[in-house]
Amino acid sequence: MAKPKKPRRRRGARISDQAPAHVAELQYAVPLAIPTYWTPEQAIAVFELIDDLRDQIWSIYHTDLQQMIRLQRQPAPTDPLELDDDLPF
Question: How far, in Å, CA of 58 to CA of 64, rounded?
């Protein structure tokens, strides 16, 4: 019995450019519907889970997250060539 051929990589393509077959079938985003029938106990359990997850992510990535937040909140640099030349004086 012959072995199935491996798919050939494109010349110059990186391995990370090629999504695994199971990923190619997935949507880019999964809509997240929040059920409206949870009991208060179920809702608080999910809320606490998300809160704990947030804390864990922060404990690992806090420095990177702070840097990203700082960069996102910085005003865009102004290009002196785009400034208005019609000054009132």
Answer: 9
Taken in order 75, 80, 86, 89, the sign of the CA dihedral is positive
Domain count, the chain: 1
In a domain, 80, yes or no: no
Distance between CA 66 and CA 57 in Å, rounded? Answer: 12
Q: pLDDT tens digits, residue range 29-63?
A: 778 899 999 999 999 999 999 999 999 999 999 99
DSSP state of 38: -
> How much is the mean pLDDT over the chain?
76
Evaluate whether residue 86 is within a structural domain: no
Residue-range definition of the domain harbouring residue 42: 37-73
